[in-house]
Structure formats: C-alpha cells, structure tokens
Write a structure and sequence with these properties.
heterodimer; A: alpha/beta; eight-stranded mixed β-sheet; 25 strands; B: alpha/beta
Amino acid sequence: MTTRQIHNLEVGEVFSLLRSSADGLAPDVVETRLSEIGANVLSPPPRLHWLSTLGRQFANLFSILLDVSALLCFVADRMRPGEGMALLGFALIGVAILNGLFSFIQEMRAERAMQALEKLLPQQIAVRRAGREQRIPTAELVPGDVLLLAEGDRVPADARLVSSTGLLVNNAPLTGESRHVSLEPGAVSGGRLVDSPNLVFAGASVLRGSGTAVVYATGRRTEFGKIAALSVQVRRPPTPLTREVGRMVRILTALAVAMGLSFFACGVAIGRPVWVNVVFMLGIIVANVPEGLLPTLTLALAMGGLRLAKKNVLVKSLDAVESLGSVEVICTDKTGTLTKNELAVASVVGALDARPLGAPAARRLLEYAVAASEVHLQAGELTGDPLDVAAARALADAGVDPLALGRDVVRHIPFDVERRRAAGVIASGAGQRFVVKGAWEVVRSHLTALRSEPDVIPLSEAELARAEATVRRMASRALRVIAVASREITPETVGAPEAELFRGLVLEGFLCLEDPLRPEVPEALSRCREAGIRVLLVTGDHPDTARAIAERAGIVEPSAGADVVLGGDALERLREHELVAALRSGLAVFARTTPEQKLKIVGAVKRLGLLVGMTGDGVNDAPALRAADVGIAMGKTGTDVAREAAQIVLLDDNFASIVAGVEEGRTVFSNVQKFTSYVLASNVPEIVPFLCFVVLPVPLALSVIQILVIDLGTDIVPAIGLGQEPPDGEAMKRRPRGLSGRLLSRSLVLRSYLFLGGIEAAFAMAMFFWVLVRGGWHYAEPLAADAALYRSATTLTLVAVVFTQIGNLVSRRYESRLGVDRGLFENPLFVVGVGAELGFVFLVTRWPPLMNALETGALPWSFIGLAAFGAPLMLLADYARKRLTRRASAR
Amino acid sequence: MLHFAYDGTLNGDWLAHYAVRLAVHTPERRLHLVHVRDSAAAPDLTSRFARISAECHVVGVTLDAEVVPAAGRDVAEEVLARVPRGSASLLVCGARARPRNLAYLAGTVSARLLASAPATVVAIRVVSPGILGQPGRLLLPFAGHPRGARYALPFLRAFGSDLERLDVLVVREVSHLRYRRLSPSATDRLQRVGAEFAARIEGELREGLGPHRFALDTSAVVSDDLPKEILVHAGKLHSRLICLGASERSLPERLVRGNPIETILRDAPCDVAVYRSAG
C-alpha cells in the first residue's frame, strides 16, 4: 500500500478529505476550525515574557557580583562617610544595569527575527467562503479555506492547488533559491511534499497567473512556520566567553568570600570585637573582588566590535567578538563568499573536444551569444542579465562592440524561464541568421548538426555523446556551460513562429562561464589552516563544481579521495553518528545541500566537540545560524531574517573578512587574559596588608578606600589599554581554543597571585615598613590613623603598588618577550594608561583634596623615586620567569 | 482489531484518517467505530459516517459503526465496555482544543481511556489534516524511562508499512541551574549515557518492529527543558507525528516542572499521539 499525501490526491478528493468544497467553508465551520487549530500566525511569544527575560539578565552571577561590590561600597560609605564610596557604589550599579540592559537587547533580537519573518506573510488574502468571494485577514485562515491567488499575492498558508492558469511562483523563502516554479493542479505520484508542483507554500509569492487552492496547513504547521519556529526556538549555545566569565566570576567570588569568612573566624578566635571583624571581612572581600575587571571586559569587547566593523565584520552581540576567535570549524557558502558572485567567460570551446576555439571562431560564437542577449549601456556600464553581460564583455575584449552588434539584431526572443533559452535573428552579410543560447539539455533537442572547424557535420549518436562528454568535463571544472547554436534563415522566416525557427540548428560550441574565486580567498584559507581552523564548503552546487571550487580555494587537496565530497541525498540518508564519522575522516565538501541540511551539519560538528561558525543568507538558513556557535549572515545578499538570526554580519560577504574577524577575536581573548592577569596581580598587595594586620601587631598598610582606588581607579585605564592591544602576529599561529580553553587557567592564576602578586606585595610591604622604621616606629607599636608617619607609610605602599603595576603592565604585552620591545605608540591607550598611573602618583602625593579623600600624605621625591624601582624590578623578574618557562617548555 | 472512539467533531473527522490508516495494518482490516450519544448536540452522523466509510472502502477496510446512547454511564465507560481487554486491540481517541484554555488531555474522556488502558490506547491531536493520517516520519522521544520502547511497540506496529522514518530522541533532563553550569565534559558524559540508552531503544525497536524497512536514527541531548527540546527536534527532523508515552509524573512533579505532554500538545508544529499500552 503506497502512502498518499495531499499532493497525491485527485482534485475532488482534496475537498472531501479536508471536509471542504469548491464554495469554501461555512462561517460556523470556520469558527470551529479556528478554535481547534488556532489562528494562522507564526508562534507568538508568551505574554510578558520580556519581563522574565529582563529579570534573568539581573539574576546572573555577573550582575550579583557587581551588586554585592556596590553594596560593600555603600557599607564602607556608611562607616566612613565623605570618602566618595557611595559614588563608586552607584558607578558599579550603573555598570550592572548597563550590562543587563545590553544582554536584554541581545536576547530580544530573536523577536526581531520573528518580526522579519512575519513581514514575508501578507495581511489580507482573497478567499471563497460559503460561495462568496471576500478578502479576509490572513490570521483567520483555517484548513479547508479556498484561496483565490492572483499575480502579486504572497501566499499566506500551505495549500493544495485545485485550479490554475499559468501560475508561476517564487518559493525563495522556503527553498532558499530564487527560482521560479510553474505550478499545475493535477495529482502527482510519490515525490517529496515540498517539491510537489501542485502545492503553494506560505511565504511564496505569485509571479504570474492565478489559481485556486485549498489550505491544508496554517500558522506554525506550515513549512514556513516550522522554519520560523526553529529560528526562534533553537537555542544558541552560551558563547565560550560567557562560560569562561561565569566560571571566573564564580571562582573569584568563592575565593573572596572564603578568605573573608576565614579572616572573620580568625578575628573572632583571637578575641577581636565582632564589628571590627566584620569591617576586616568586608575589606578582604573588597580586596579580592576585582571590581574593575568586568567593566573593562565589556569595554574591551565593545572596542573589539568597533575594530571588527572596520574589517567589514559587524558584530551584533559583544560576546561574538571573541566567539569568532574561538571557532574551530567554519562552514561556508560558495557563491559570493568564496567566489565573486559575478559571471565571466572563462573559455569558448568546440563541441567535440573541449578545446578552446581559435580567435575567429570564438569571436563568431560570442557574436551569436550576444545577439541572443539583451544588454544595455547605463552610466558607462553594461547592464542586463549577468550571463549576457559576461558574454558582451568577452566580445568587447575580442574587439567587437557588443552594442553595435545589437543594432544588427532584427528580432529578439527574450529568455524564457521555463525553457531556459534565449534567441535572436541577426543580419549576417546578405542573409539572416537565427541564433540561440541556452542550457545544453534544452538546446540539444533542436540540433541536427554541429560545427567542427572548418566543417559542419551531421549529428550522430557518437557526436552527441562526445558533446555530452564536453559538457560534463567543463561542468566538473566548476564552469557553467551554455550551448550556442545557429542556422541560416531566409528573410521571410524572420517573423516565423518560435517552433519553426528552433528546427535544424547547428551547434556552434560552448560558452564556459565561471564565478571566479575571490583573489584573497586562497590566502585566507591558508591562514585558516595555519590557525588550525577547518573549513567546510556547504553549497547547493553540483558535486563536481563544488569540488573544483574547494580545490581552487584550498579547502581540499587535488589528490584527496572522492569521500571528501558528500551530496545532499547521501547526507539526508546518513545517520548522525555516520556523519560524525565521515567528518572525522576528512569530509570537507557538502554539495547539492538544502539550507535545512545545514542544521544537521552544525549538529554533527558539535558532536565532534568543536565550535562551529556557519554562514547563511536565506530565510531558511536562520535555524542553522542560530544553532551554530557563531552565526554569520551575509550583509550584501542576505535576507533580513538571516541577518537578525545571526550574531555577525559580513558587510562585504567575503570569506577573507571572516578570517580577519577570527584574528581579531583571538586577539581580544588574548587581551582579556592579559588584563585579567594584570588586575588579579594587584589583589595580592591589597590582601597581604590585611593579613599582616590581623596576624601581626602591625598597622594596616592600605585602607579600604585605597584598595578600591587601585581596583577602580589606577588599574582601570591601563587594563583598558591592554584590552586594545593590536594583533601581535602570533594569534593566527596558535591552535583554536575551542571549548576547553580557559580564561582563568591554572597557570594564569598561579602566575598572577603567587608570582606577580607576591613580588608586588613584598615590594609594597617593604616600602611600608621602610618608611615606618625610618620614622622611628617600633614593632608592635600602635599608630594613630591620622599620624603623619602612618600616612606617609601607607602612601608609599600605594605608590609602590602602582609602580609595580606599571612594570606588570609593560610585561603583560608579550607572552614570552620583555614587553618594552613592543612599539610604545602602537597602542595609544597603553600610553594613556601609563600616563594615568604616573599622574595618579603625582596627585596622590601632591594634591591636598585627593590626599584628604584617600588619607594619604606628602612624600619626598626621593621616596617616590625609590618606589619607582618597583617597575623595572617587576619587569625584569617577570622576564626571568618568561625565559625560564620558555626554556622548560623547550626541554 | 482497531477501535475508534469517535466524538462526531471536526477533530474526530480528521482523526478518522488515522483510524482508517491504522486499521489497514490490522489482520482483520476492520475499523470498529464507537460513537456515544451524550447530552451534547447530535452531529450529522449520516454524512460523516458516509465519508469515513468511503475512505475505508478505498483502502479495503470494513467499517463497523456503532452509535451508543449514553444510558446513564459516562462516555468513557461506554467506550471501555466495547473494547476487549488485551494487547491485541488498539483504541484510537482524540485530544482536541477545549474552551477556556482547558488542558487538551487532563480531565477528558481520552485521559480516562488512557488511564484505564484496557488495550493499547492512543490519543491523537490532529493539527495537520493535510497529511491524511499518514505521517510517515515519527519522532519518539524518551526521557530515560527504564521500560524503554516496549510500551511504544504495539502502537508503532500499527503503522505497518506507512512508517517511513522513525527518529528516537533521548533527552537527559537536568535542572535549569545545573544546565547553565554544565561543563562540556559533563555534557558529553550525560550525552554518552543518553546515547547508550538510545542504542538500547534502537535494538528493541528493530527487534520489535520486525523486518519492515524504515529509516531509524537516534540522538541524545542534554536539556533543562524537555518539551522545548522535543518541539525543536520535531521541527529539525521534519517529523509529522510526535509519539509520547502517557505521563507518569506525580502531581507535585507536575506542579513544579509542569506537564510536558500538555505543552507539546499545545505548541507542536505537527500532530501528537499520546500512547499507553495495556498492562
């Protein structure tokens, strides 16, 4: 028993099985069906869901950490009013709100994808109900409704044709190909529903003709509705940076709270008053929480986004700036991305041997092709169908003016979409010549002879087979092959019917056109290989064409086996684990694929544990763009739906821009690691004074306000500077980070806290005690908070931390080199950062208002000079570490 | 024997496509239609039966239509009284939209039939009448129930050669909080457990559905939202029927985590069948 679907039914059965009739549905039936099936609308979001979305942005650990930091500032302000702590608290809350709102706007973009989809459906449509024709809102359509389609209409639901007159539709929103499809109402046997020529689908537009159709699916049950639902429902995985920042925040928060509580417990154990212990606990927490880190991160990403925009990569979500840098696999389209998306004549070949024709014969063939074309001159440029323009340009290159030739054309038969051919009659010497150009499959049925220079020979089966072989051979080189044929006619037959003219043609040869590879693509592919990024070509083209382009671009080696290419049918049959295995064994080209299959490819790549970037431009690419770790839409040729579903928009549709974006993304991550290490290092000299103060009978070397000034003041501008470091040339030589790459790696934590932080703390505490001892202080002797000696000591401690941080800043510029050897003015913000730190040192020791606010004292220049040694000390010590590490890893 | 609890509504008419197609694959090729006349307004049964009969005729199925007066008992009891107990029978009933946004299944006649399950009972919500009861591509989701595919087999067998493709989806459900913090390695571990379960299901299905040729694929995912995952996969895989085992979540569980069946019945992009086997 064969399965029967709606497209397999005879017209009469359609009405019966959908419980409808040619007169349409009665109003009460419509009402029942509307309540059963629902309105013909794409999945509306739940009411007030934006509130929960907004709430979620403020309930993550990132926000909570900022809020807690702000709370600590308010507590500090309450305890010590007038020190500006409340202002800092408000600043942190502002950052939390900005971050939350930014994320909210990103998340609500999914809604915009849905809105873009809704625009493809009409508001009203003509229907027949209870025998009466009327226009109704499309939302009220139900299965069984009889649609009356006319030229210019957009189809509002999936429907089965029951009658039509020359109906031609464009199914681009569904198929991704702007192909015109001619529809007929008759039943078809077998075949896929979506390929059926008697069905119209929601989102399609009627280009020509009219028809009557019975609705069989509405709303999210239409094929278009399913794409729309997937475009919104498919979850975008959290970006690697989101994961890593979340992990970092958890670790740092846990560390801060654990240390704070430990100090509180120690204080209670040694008998200090509870209130004092609370204050110190808060101090420890404040010292441990890198308050400036998260705002700096946001700023670094935002500025990274701006730099990407200059490289024609528009970033819609800040996290995507870095995500692009971590991709391990890029699935790319062909047309427009790897190629220029413009046709050019690559060669003109003879019919039998695929050899290029000699100059006179090639020129003649081009003349015939142009005579069957329609090109115009507009603003000095040839315009018209890309194929026609390519032929005209080639003819111009051959020394013949195509426009002058056009004046000799006495009759033109325009390109017929269905018959895939165009023709013309040209004055040829004393006579007339009928010329045709078109698809080989179309032209071959009109041939009786072919030209084999200098003769014209009758067409036998053997010659036909050789011509077929020529076509296949050229197609396998990624060339589009157009047959050109002609015959002499008498002046009387110029106006004859087309059927008569198309008889007895002589095949002149083939015009081979190509969409040339973008010149920058091979270099970009080579950089991808160097960077450990795998590139997969996903195209709707023939496997031979796809492979030829992949070879030229460098995606596959010419020596690679046939198993590097997989066709769409085979892909459809493959099970997920089989596809994963094929990818593992080198599959690199997906040919004849449909946009829906992109989702399967994304899923399989993810099963390999790899981060994947996917390009797309059509409406039905939207689900795959959302499912990929990085969705990349085409800015020039892409639809609004694709652009809204993606995180990144390529303004020039160029693959090379993706690679430039990858480099920028990797640089951003590397910069984030640099300033994270920089910021964390200063936590240690902030904690150690508290540790000494609790454990030993010594004064506190840094107050809470001084700690906050380092975290939110002196560290911020240099950290922002580190966040703007340009690519160092090493970024594309490293393997991709993938999912396992850590922002807060063990080595970074150990280096920052134990080594860099240890040096800073030791130097700063040495400065502190040096001033005290020099001023006559004795061990265990208490000092008043406003004593001049105490103020000078804490000031020098603060200045020492700032100077060692300058050394740390310079050292962070390179992973393995000293740091001073990187151009000072390569990154202006870096200079500003160092300047800001030096300026702070001056102000904190010389400007009374700031000195009062920060409880600092004046220092002689000699003291400051001594503290300044902290910078080279830090730089040289870290360079020694770098060399030792490099030597160890070399061993 | 295939029994069909027909309610005389439009949904019942669409459901009849399923009943007829499923009856084709029963040994007797008979469709026993039971319509209980309750207090609701009596539908025009003659023309409706004629249409169903015509459909049966086309595919060589004999229709036994039985109209029963409610006679004091409720509709579910009347239907149950006419369905023989045992796994050899299959009872098809509907799950349709109800006024005032009431649940599709909970508290309905179909829910009582599913709960009693004298035979294999399947409640189907039809939203794509255009597929004419021949979905062909089925999605069979599991959340890791130890019984595996055993309970789904009687229902799936009823599709016979109409079954073209069966996608098994195993969802390893974790809490929202845990899901957001799952490391890639933990996700991979959970997925592997899911894949093992899926492989077991596949074995049971291949053995239980016999030699009939159909495409079978399995996938395992980790998620914090079971219904959403099922809906997304139904869209991705172009499934035309989602087959769900009747929920065994307790009341507290339903209160905390919701009733996934109702969510899927409401939001599905395709038809949905809720099945329960006898015993």
